[in-house]
Each structure stands twice: as C-alpha cells, then as structure tokens.
TrEMBL record:
This is [Fe-S]-binding protein. One of its GO terms (cellular component) is plasma membrane. The keyword rRNA processing does not apply. Pfam families: CCG. It comes from the Bacteria. The keyword 4Fe-4S applies. Keywords: 4Fe-4S, Iron, Iron-sulfur, Metal-binding, Oxidoreductase. GO terms for molecular function: 4 iron, 4 sulfur cluster binding; metal ion binding; oxidoreductase activity. It comes from Candidatus Thermofonsia Clade 3 bacterium. Residues 2-52 form the Cysteine-rich domain.
Amino acid sequence: EMERCTGDAARRSGNEALFYELAQSNIETLNEAMGERKRRIVTTCPHCLQTLGKEYSQYGGAFEVIHHTQLLSELTAAKKISVQRAQDVDMITFHDPCYLGRHNG
C-alpha cells in the first residue's frame, strides 16, 4: 500500500493533478522512511530516476537517486563485487534509454 507509481506517465500524458498527488504522497512516504538519515534511492527505471531525482524537487523532494547500473559500476570499481566473463557468451547488449543516457547523463 505504501508503494506507488512515481507519476511519470501521468505527467507525460498531461495529468498534472494526478502527478502532484502521487508526488506529494511519495515524498511524504520517503521522508518518513528515511528520517534524518542520508540515503540513496536506487531505481531500475530511467523514468523513475528522472522523476524522483529531478522533478520531485519542485515539491520539496530532495533525494539522491541513482540508476542500478551506476551502483553496479561503483561496486565493481571499489572491488566489492566482481564480474566474470561467461565462457559460452560472445557478446552482450545493453539498451541505453533516452532518460538514462541523455536526460540524466
């Protein structure tokens, strides 16, 4: 019940009232859950990254938000996790969504 959509789709389709309602509710829930502790929000969705990290600030939501690929990069660079190449895989692909690569650099 505490987990709600960020409202990205509502905003993109022009429903600012629904976006505002979702944003206010989510900001309140996240502030209650985090308390005074400085914590990061990790998301798998580039649209949620954009909404939580950049658009909620206009309503008082000040959160550090990162994409899960950023977390994986940090953890591998710090040697906290390691990635080993699979013997039977020659190539992998990664879809770089516009909201990840272009809007959130």
